UniProtKB/TrEMBL annotation:
Signal sequence residues: 1-23
Residues annotated as domain DUF3347: 44-132
Species, as recorded: Flavobacterium psychroterrae
Keyword field: Signal
Name of the protein in question: DUF3347 domain-containing protein
Length: 176
C-alpha cells in the first residue's frame, strides 16, 4: 500500500513537472516569435535611417549603396509574420517603398535621391506609425524642402540640404 501511494505521488510529480516544462517551452517559443515579428520591420527602419544618414553627408554613392541595403531589407519581409494592422499598411506601401528604394539605389544624382526620399519617408512614416520602432522615432520637417523625414535622434540633421542647411527643420512628432 505504501509503495502504491509513493508510485502515485511520483507519477503526479512527473506529470506536473512535464506540464510545467511544456508550458515554459511554449512561452519561450511564443516570445521568440514575437521578437522576430517586431524585428522584421525594424530591419527596414534601420536601413531607412542609413539612407537618411548618407543623404545628410550629401554622398550620392553611399546613398545609393544604402538604398540597395534597404531594398534587401524590404524583400526579406515575410508578410505572413506581420501583425494584422502592420500587414494592412505594408500592403499599401510596399510597392512604393520598393520603387523609391530602387530609384534611389540606381541614381547618382543627389538631388533626385533627395526628391525620392520625400516619398520614401512618407511611406516609412505610415508603416512605423502602426508598428512602432524599438526606440523613439522623431518625425522632423523642413519648411525649405516642404518635406518630412524620420530620425532616431531629436537633434535635427536635415537630409534634404546636408551641410548647407544641416539644422534647418524641427521635430513635429515623437513616435513611441
Amino acid at each position: 500500500m505504501k509503495n502504491s501511494i509513493l508510485n502515485i505521488a511520483a507519477v503526479i510529480v512527473l506529470v506536473f513537472s512535464a506540464n510545467f516544462v511544456q508550458a515554459n517551452t511554449i512561452k519561450t517559443a511564443t516570445t521568440s516569435i514575437e521578437i522576430a515579428d517586431s524585428s522584421q520591420l525594424q530591419s527596414v527602419y534601420d536601413a531607412y535611417f542609413t539612407v537618411k544618414d548618407a543623404l545628410i553627408k550629401s554622398d550620392a554613392k553611399l546613398t545609393s549603396a544604402k538604398a540597395t541595403d534597404l531594398l534587401t531589407a524590404i524583400s526579406a519581409i515575410k508578410m505572413d509574420k506581420l501583425k494584422s494592422n502592420e500587414h494592412t499598411v505594408w500592403m499599401k506601401v510596399v510597392k512604393k517603398l520598393t520603387a523609391d528604394a530602387k530609384s534611389i539605389s540606381t541614381s547618382t544624382d543627389i538631388k533626385k535621391q533627395r526628391e525620392t526620399f520625400k516619398s520614401l519617408s512618407k511611406n516609412t512614416y505610415d508603416l512605423i506609425k502602426v508598428s512602432k520602432s524599438d526606440v523613439a522615432v522623431y518625425k522632423q520637417y523642413c519648411p525649405m524642402a516642404d518635406a518630412d523625414w524620420l530620425s532616431k535622434e531629436k537633434a535635427v540633421k536635415n537630409p534634404y540640404y546636408g551641410s548647407s542647411m544641416l539644422t534647418c527643420g524641427n521635430v513635429v512628432e515623437t513616435i513611441k
